[in-house]
Every structure is written in structure tokens, then in C-alpha cells.
């Protein structure tokens, strides 16, 4: 399997760079802050928790609360996981086998293409950056083969922040249904769209062969809990993924499940805080990029807390990102990390994150770097 280049880059810089300006999660909470949102009963359950093994499918109360975030799913349609990455890996290993074919949108989180590529043939369908990073449904249709089993999407999208238009989403569901394809949908940024009116339905709610991946890490800002889940109304498929989980994490952390339960019960409060933080931060990015129109093309993303601006200055975008972190401690993700094995696409863009509370410090350091050193 190809080296996980994005995580390898983070291993070097995420905790050593002074200004983390490409974080893909929202501002987190300390445990006392989270416990302050809990009912007396849930707070006591956490404080008196027995630290034994937990159920492989997940804490029943947590599965019930997760199901409450869907319109048509029950607790029995939920499988809890050790983060979203375990969900990507286990689902692909179960759903695909040699001789199958999968379709994956790009750019994307690297594991979305490299894990299926280890198993079977994969076709990449590029999002159209000239059409607000939309997905051409005709291109997906053209990629379908007799042995195609699965389509993998991600909206709100990482790294572009795009949200698929509802009519195209519905057309994709119809296409998958017509061909009997599984639709694996990474929905980890759902809930922090710029406009709730563009929020898409969750695939597991509207498609009988849909799998919705979500996690406490992104929209909820609690990556340290390492709690994710897959929702799927095909319980036979969900059971197969649960059996594969036996070879991975086996079960989730008991304290993490209890804290995730508390957070999900307070989800309206948490998401309201996070949307307000994003609204303020995106205005700060608007102002920053307006200072340097010759260096950057900036477009507000539709959802999530990451965006994919274009660099127009001297040198390559990779060189720009490398020099910025090495000289001034400002971490962005360079385009080489979004190289795809599926398509000969080369981006002149970088990923910037704006879900954290300390964005002013990072922007000031970035500005000072440009004013002092030039862009590179």
C-alpha cells in the first residue's frame, strides 16, 4: 500500500509547527467543559465507569443517540468504530474483493482511494473545480463497468469544502439504485455547512444500499475520543463489517463512548458554537486573501472547516507551503499530498483549515512571512 503521505506529513509537522493552519477539525473541548454539558445521570455514569471491554457494535445508549441524528435509522443500523479511518478500512475490505471495480471521487482523503486500490480496480472521477467542485453524474455513469460494486463520495468535501447540489445528489442515488451499487458516503462535516439550506440528506436515510460514515472528530471537534460510526440499513452488511472490526480495534474505549454520548446529547449546542466560529473565521480569511489578490485565488467553501485555495505566486505551491512552515512555522497542506494514483491531476492549490479558535495568530504569522520574505 502506498505510504499515507498526508499522515506522514502530519507526523513531522502537526505538533511541531507553531501555527496549525490546516487542521481538519473544529476547536475541541476539555473534559470539564464537556461534562458541564451533561445531565447529572450521564456525568455520574462517566465518573463511576467500569473500565472493562465494551460491546463491539458500541454502547447501546450511544447507538441510540447516534440513530437519533438520522431520519430513518434505528440503533440496530449503527456500528460504532475507532474513528472514521477504521470505518473506511473495514468497509472497503468487506465490500470489495479482487475482480470488483470501485469508483472514487478525487481529490479526497488519501485512504478513500488507496484502500480500495489494494483490493481491486478503481476509477477516479475528478470533481470539477470550474463548477464549484461539483460532481458530473454523467462521468460517474460513464465509469460504471459490469463488475462495478461501489461508489465512494465525500460531501461536505475534504479538501475543497464543496457540497453537492441536491439535484445531482438525487441523480447519483438514482444511478446507484439503477445499477445496484453500494454508495459509501463520508459525511464527517455534515452539520457545519455555511447555509443549512444546502445540507444534504444522509445517504443511509435515503438509500437502501447506502453507508453513511461519520465521526466525533470533525464537525463536533472531538478527535481525541476516537469514536466514529457507520450507519447502514442493510444489517447483514453491517454485521459483516462488525466481524471485520474483530481484527482491528475489537471494541471502542469505554470512557470515549460515554463522552461521545454526552456530546451527542448536546449536539445542537456544540454545532451552534462551531458554526458561529466558522462564520467568523471565514470572514477573516476573506480579508486576508483580499490583501494578496496576486498571490491567491480564494473562494468560500460551502461546508466543513477546510478549503482549497489556489496559489499564483512564484515557484510551485509545494515550495510555497514548505518554505512557509520551515521559515515561519505556518503549516498548510501542499498539493503533492493530494496526488492521485487514479488520475493525472496536478493541483496548484493548498489546504487551509479554519475551524480552530487561534486563527488570528496564524494569519498574522503568515502575513508577516509574506511581507518579510515574499511568498517563497
From TrEMBL:
Q: Which residues form a coiled coil?
A: none
Tree of life domain:
Bacteria
Molecular function (GO) terms for this protein are:
pyridoxal phosphate binding
Query: Which Pfam families does its entry note?
Result: Aminotran_1_2
Family matches, as InterPro entries? Aminotransferase_I/II_large, PyrdxlP-dep_Trfase, PyrdxlP-dep_Trfase_major, PyrdxlP-dep_Trfase_small
The UniProt entry, under Gene3D superfamilies, shows: Aspartate Aminotransferase, domain 1 (3.90.1150.10), Type I PLP-dependent aspartate aminotransferase-like (Major domain) (3.40.640.10)
**Protein name, per record:** Aminotransferase class I/classII large domain-containing protein
Report domain Aminotransferase class I/classII large positions: 44-354
Under the heading SUPFAM superfamilies, the entry gives:
PLP-dependent transferases (SSF53383)
Species the sequence originates in: Aestuariispira insulae
Amino acid at each position: 500500500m502506498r505510504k499515507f503521505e498526508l499522515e506522514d506529513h502530519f507526523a513531522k509537522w502537526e505538533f511541531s509547527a507553531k501555527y496549525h493552519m490546516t487542521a481538519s477539525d473544529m476547536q475541541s473541548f476539555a473534559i470539564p467543559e464537556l461534562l458541564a454539558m451533561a445531565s447529572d445521570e450521564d456525568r455520574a455514569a462517566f465518573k463511576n465507569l467500569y473500565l472493562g471491554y465494551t460491546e463491539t457494535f458500541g454502547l447501546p445508549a450511544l447507538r441510540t443517540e447516534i440513530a437519533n441524528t438520522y431520519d430513518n435509522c434505528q440503533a440496530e443500523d449503527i456500528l460504532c468504530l475507532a474513528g472514521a479511518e477504521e470505518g473506511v478500512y473495514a468497509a472497503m475490505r468487506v465490500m470489495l474483493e479482487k475482480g470488483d471495480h470501485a469508483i472514487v471521487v478525487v481529490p479526497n482523503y488519501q485512504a478513500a482511494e488507496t484502500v480500495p486500490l489494494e483490493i481491486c480496480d478503481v476509477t477516479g472521477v475528478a470533481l470539477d473545480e470550474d463548477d464549484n467542485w461539483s460532481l458530473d453524474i454523467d462521468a460517474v455513469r460513464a465509469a460504471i463497468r459490469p463488475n462495478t460494486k461501489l461508489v465512494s463520495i465525500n460531501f461536505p468535501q475534504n479538501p475543497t469544502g464543496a457540497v453537492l447540489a441536491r439535484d445531482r445528489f438525487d441523480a447519483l442515488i438514482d444511478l446507484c439504485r439503477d445499477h445496484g451499487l453500494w454508495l459509501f458516503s463520508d459525511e464527517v462535516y455534515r452539520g457545519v455547512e455555511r447555509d443549512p439550506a444546502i445540507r444534504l440528506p444522509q445517504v443511509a436515510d435515503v438509500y437502501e444500499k447506502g453507508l453513511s460514515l461519520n465521526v466525533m472528530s470533525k464537525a463536533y471537534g472531538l478527535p481525541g475520543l476516537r469514536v466514529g460510526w457507520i450507519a447502514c440499513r442493510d444489517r447483514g452488511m453491517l454485521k459483516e463489517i462488525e466481524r471485520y472490526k474483530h481484527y482491528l480495534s475489537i471494541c471502542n474505549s469505554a470512557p470515549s463512548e460515554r463522552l461521545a454520548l454526552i456530546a451527542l446529547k448536546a449536539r445542537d449546542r456544540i454545532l451552534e458554537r462551531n458554526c458561529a466560529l466558522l462564520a467568523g473565521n471565514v470572514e477573516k480569511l476573506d480579508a486576508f486573501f483580499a490583501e494578496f489578490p496576486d498571490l491567491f485565488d480564494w473562494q468560500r467553501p460551502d461546508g466543513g472547516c477546510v478549503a482549497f485555495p489556489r496559489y499564483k505566486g512564484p515557484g510551485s505551491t509545494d515550495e510555497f507551503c514548505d518554505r512557509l512552515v520551515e521559515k515561519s512555522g505556518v503549516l498548510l497542506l501542499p498539493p503533492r499530498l493530494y496526488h492521485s494514483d487514479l488520475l493525472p491531476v496536478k493541483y496548484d492549490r493548498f489546504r487551509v483549515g479554519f475551524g480552530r479558535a487561534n486563527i488570528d495568530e496564524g494569519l498574522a504569522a503568515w502575513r508577516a512571512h509574506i511581507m518579510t520574505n515574499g511568498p517563497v
